[in-house]
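[Automated response] Your request has been received and processed.

Submitted sequence:
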Amino acid sequence: MKQDLAEIKGEIFTAMGHSNRIRILEFLKDGEKCACEIVPALEIEQSNLSRHMKILVQAGILNSWKEGQKVMYEIADKKFIKILDDISTILKNRIQNRMKVLEEL
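Generated structure:
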């Protein structure tokens, strides 16, 4: 049973583990957006965006739906935002610790 849970967690981390997907999630932090807004904001091609969005939706990280001709996306659970924020905090702490070491030289 624990292995199954680990596999599911691995799928989520794999889905989040690409820089473009992280950029997409960061962009969606403030709420739902149309794919037509994401493409110019992140300066990626529509086909590239579609591939990344499909992975995030299949992993349950994003919700998607159509509004007329537009495809809308939102983060499925705000806890994914917390994960991103926690990783940013970890990175900031690592950088600060490295800066302290450099200052001591």
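Summary generated for your ticket: Residues 2-77 form a domain with the Arc Repressor Mutant, subunit A fold (CATH 1.10.10.10). The first helix runs from residue 2 to 16.
If you did not submit this request, please reply to this message.
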